Amino acid sequence: MKRQILYVTGTRADFGLMARTLREIDADSALELSILITGMHLSPIYGSTVKEIVAEGLRIAAEVPVDLNTSTGAGMARNLGEMVIRFTDVMERERPDVVLLLGDRGEMLAGAISALHLNIPCAHVHGGERSGTVDEPVRHAISKLSHIHFTTSDDAATRLARMGEDPSRIFVSGAPGLDGLTELASKDRAALAGEYGLDPARPTALMVFHPVLQEQVTAFDDTVSIVEALQARGLQAVIIAPNSDAGADEVRYALKRYDSHEGFLILPHLPRGDFVSWMAVCDVMIGNSSSGIIEAATFGTPVINVGTRQNLRLRNDNVKDVALSRGALEVALGEALSAGKLSRRNVYGKGTAFETITRTLKSIDLGPATLSKVNSF
What we know:
This is UDP-N-acetylglucosamine 2-epimerase (Hydrolyzing). 40% of the residues lie in helices and 16% in strands. By secondary structure, it is of the alpha/beta class. The strands form two sheets. It has a seven-stranded parallel β-sheet, with helices on both faces. A six-stranded parallel β-sheet has the order 10-9-8-11-12-13, with helices on one face. The radius of gyration is 20 Å and the shape is globular.
């Protein structure tokens, strides 16, 4: 009998990172994959990215919409409760053998809570990392509710063991977002510029800036500081709209001020292949996305990381942390443009996470002892 794997996805980001692994699971004769879709995937504001999942041909177990119209901490908490209720119904009907989760978002926490109370083991990817803000305690909470761990580094694996997770159930897979990354960047600069109406000869930035719950009050001004620094340096910019966390409205309102600015392209979503291609060919990436911390080093792209959202994460040599002030950002942009492409060494793995995750999911013991979790010290 095939082992049933249910993956919970709520954003364009998590699905894109896991796409290679999900295809591998789906193709394995010992496994059967289904997808629980929720969150931003189902909202036109965020590009209705459910269509990308449908295009993959993967079995969809359920679609669980939530209210994304109120980008506040209270709205995030209410959505978490709604998702626990609805996810429980889905998992009770589907009865998967394993629930697969990635990262630190509320959708994944809801999935872990539901699965735990239905005696379904959870496998968590990207546990054990530090990232500051609200993301870090949520990430660690998911880890403590999970039974199988796939980490991106030895550092993260050691931290999980120190948190009391069983070392025999911690597997260093590397980051799944690196799997097939260079092949995915299939469009060159000229092709992208032509397709998106930009000048291939002008320096170009890729900007991804998400709100931070604890810094919602400054989200508007922080966004303006970044965009005005790009303007001051004469850069073109491909700007991706923020996620749905508290403060998203403020970021979007700030970006609207630059809708008609020549050379600024503000998009609700980019297909994964185009996003990765822009990451590979742009002169600099700026914002606070994990893609800058984890993936951009594969292309040697300079990254200016701003604010606290990625605090304490392992850094590649291409990342520079910069204060959220226009002056500091202008200086950093000038330095990045002068430096050009940097080292392609990536501390987050070799692009083979899909192999470790798939192999482990089909072979690991899921007997009664799996669910009897206690601290290992």
